[in-house]
Design a protein that fits this description.
single chain, alpha+beta, Glutaredoxin, Serine Threonine Protein Phosphatase 5, Tetratricopeptide repeat, 2 domains, five-stranded mixed beta sheet, 14 helices, globular, TPR_rpt, Thioredoxin-like_sf, TPR repeat
C-alpha cells in the first residue's frame, strides 16, 4: 500500500496543479525556501531562465511564440508607463508556458526591463508559494503565474495563471481599463474573507455560495486558493473556503476531495474520510479517490 505521505502529496498536485501573506490573518512560522539546481527562487531574470535546466522549456516556448506585433506596437508607449511584477514557479507548467511568451512580448514592445520584476516562488509544503525575500506578502498570490501591472507603485490589475484571450490582448485590456482576470473569483473571496473576518464568513457561507455560484471559473479555482492560505498557516480560513467550494460545486467530487485533503492535513481523519467518501460516491471508479478514502479510514 502506498504511504499516507505519498498519497497526500499526490492529492495536493492532482486537485490544484499550479493552481499569500494576507493582512490581519495568522501566518505560519516562517521557513526560508532554498533554491536548488532545478528550481529557482527569489528575484530572477532571463539570464537565469536561460541556464540549461530551465532553457529546456524556456527556449522552445520563447522561440515558437509568434507575437502580435501590430497590436503590441499600438500600445507599447503606454505600456512603458507601468511597472510589471511577476510571480511564477519554475516548477509550474503554466509559468513555463506564459513567462517565455511575456518576455518575447515585452522585448517586441521595447519595454524597459528595469521596470520588470520576476519573483520565483516555492512549491514545497512548508514554503508554499513563498519566496526567500517574502515579496509575495500582501499580494494574495494563489495561482501562478500572476502578472501584476502597477502605476506609480500601485496595482492597476493582474493576469492570473492564464490570459483570458492572449497575453497581448490582455495587456491591452488592462491598459484600456476593461479587464477581468481569468481567476478573479478567488480574489473576490479573498476580499470578502478579509472584510468579513473568519467568524462572519463562516456564518454566512450559504449567502456566499449564492453570491459566488456562476462566478468561479472552475472547481479548482477555490480549491487552489483554499490550499494556498491553508499551507501558509491560515488553516481554518482554508477549511471554510474549501467548504464554500463544495457548496458552489455540490455535484463535483473534486470539491469534496479538496475539502477532505484539508482535513487530512489537520489530522481530522473522521472528517477527511467523510468528504473523501462523498467524492468516491460521486466517482466510484476513480482509484485515486478510493486511495485517499482508504488512507483516511486507516487513520481512524
Amino acid at each position: 500500500m502506498r504511504s499516507p505521505i505519498f498519497l497526500i502529496l499526490i492529492l495536493i498536485t492532482t486537485l490544484t496543479g499550479c493552481k499569500d501573506n494576507q493582512a490581519g490573518v495568522e501566518v505560519a512560522e516562517e521557513v526560508i525556501p532554498n533554491e536548488s539546481e532545478d528550481k529557482l527562487l527569489g528575484k530572477i531574470n532571463k539570464d537565469k531562465l536561460m541556464k540549461p535546466v530551465f532553457a529546456e522549456w524556456f527556449q522552445p516556448a520563447y522561440e515558437d511564440y509568434k507575437v502580435n506585433t501590430e497590436l503590441v506596437e499600438s500600445y507599447k508607449d503606454q505600456l512603458k508607463e507601468y511597472e510589471i511584477e511577476v510571480f511564477m514557479g519554475t516548477w509550474c507548467e503554466d509559468s513555463q508556458r506564459e513567462i517565455p511568451t511575456l518576455y518575447k512580448i515585452l522585448e517586441a514592445a521595447d519595454y524597459p526591463m528595469e521596470q520588470l520584476t520576476i519573483i520565483a516562488i516555492d512549491d514545497e509544503i512548508e514554503n508554499y508559494k513563498r519566496s526567500p525575500g517574502g515579496e509575495e506578502g500582501g499580494r494574495n498570490i494563489h495561482h501562478v503565474p500572476t502578472i501584476i501591472l502597477k502605476k506609480n507603485g500601485n496595482e492597476v490589475n493582474r493576469i492570473i495563471e492564464y490570459p483570458v484571450r492572449t497575453l497581448e490582448e490582455d495587456l491591452q485590456l488592462i491598459l484600456d481599463g476593461g479587464y477581468t482576470p481569468y481567476y478573479f473569483a478567488a480574489d473576490m473571496v479573498h476580499t470578502r474573507l478579509i472584510e468579513m473576518g473568519l467568524e462572519n464568513f463562516k456564518a454566512d457561507l450559504n449567502k456566499l455560495a449564492v453570491e459566488f455560484t456562476g462566478k468561479t471559473r472552475d472547481v479548482y479555482e477555490l480549491n487552489t486558493y483554499a490550499k494556498t492560505i491553508f499551507r501558509q498557516g491560515k488553516k481554518e480560513e482554508g477549511i471554510q473556503v474549501a467548504t464554500l467550494n463544495t457548496m458552489i460545486y455540490p455535484n463535483n467530487p473534486n470539491a469534496y476531495a479538496g475539502l477532505g485533503s484539508r482535513y487530512m492535513d489537520m489530522e481530522q481523519y473522521e472528517e477527511a474520510a467523510k468528504y473523501f467518501g462523498k467524492a468516491v460516491a460521486m466517482a466510484p471508479d476513480d482509484s485515486e479517490f478510493k486511495g485517499y478514502l482508504e488512507e483516511a479510514q486507516a487513520k481512524l
